[in-house]
Amino acid sequence: MKERLMARHRAVAAGLALAAAQALGASAATAQSPTGGEDQRPRARDLGIEPGIFQPGAFNAITDVTGVLVGHATVVEGDRVRTGVTAIRPHGGNLYFDRVPAAVHVGNGFGKLLGVTQVTELGELETPVLLTCTLCVWKAADAMVEWALEQDGMENVRSINPVVGETNDGGLNDIRSRPVTAAHVRTALDEAASGLVDEGAVGAGTGTSAFGWKGGIGTSSRVLPESLGGRTVGVLVQSNFGGILRIAGAPVGETLGRYAFRSQVEGGTEGGSSVQEERDGESQGSIMIVVATDAPLSERNLARLGRRAIMGLSRTGSYASNGSGDYVISFSTAESVRRRPGGAPVRNVEDLANDRVSALFQATVEATEEAIYNSLFKAVTVTSRWGERQALPLAETLEVLKRYGVVPRE
Asked: Full-prediction pTM beyond 0.85?
């Protein structure tokens, strides 16, 4: 145990030193490119931010759940377009014939999640999950249907339920031009892979914002000890929301002076006129959360898993504002719970007992929290003709985290 703690502190110290060096050159590095420099920024765990008690998987990503694949198509055009597509495939086969149980939980419903009613009604996914920008949802869905119908064995299929979620990246993207094309969707689907997942300003996170800083794609995982079943939970987020940022309990948003309602709290109203209740870019927005597990769960317990993801979201400082679309899509990849059309009229499936799911709930909370932090730490400053979203400042954030004992001082 002592050697493990010493190794952790050495790793944290190395991460802090790297982050400090990167922070000094971050502005110059990110000013050159709207999406460049992701690899230069650390993940939360590199800095010693380790939410919860369970350990992550090998990649600390949703792809630690066996079979799950993630792909991105990042769309950057001139100074106008900053958007993209992210595809999450529960497995590499044809989902229409090898469906996975799934559930949707709605934290706040100001959003455009396509396919939600059929998932809720039947409790299963028959397509991958796509994430993109708000006004691109229907183009992305049409492209995925076309892609799916071209797969082997689909010649007689006459109905399909594409699942596409979104957040509004209009602060950095020419969203009205609806720039996502069928080619972008195919790239995300066809290039989806296991292993490491790109995070930050990539794919569907290219133009998003979180807590007034640059948001994006983030992911994390947890593996339960064998004594608790040894199952894995993985989470991927598209962060584009606001609130009052807290990292492992430290009041980062308040301390750095960027948080919801700041102008009203610090300055009051001006002349008694109607002042915006919330500052643009610091409260409004949405988040898509995708939760995967290899535990054999029914759609009922997958819905319960989704509700715990919202608890992880709240730990970061979100309060689900009026203008937010906060959605969780959760699914199980376990072979024993797959649904195959045309099979036996009565199915025998495994179903993890209710009194064995609590550890999965905890794992979901932890992985969701860390995935959101990763979406912030990995994101770089992005500019366009519509504005700029600065990356979370590393040096200043580290100072706050040290002050509150989240990470050790060197």
From this structure: yes
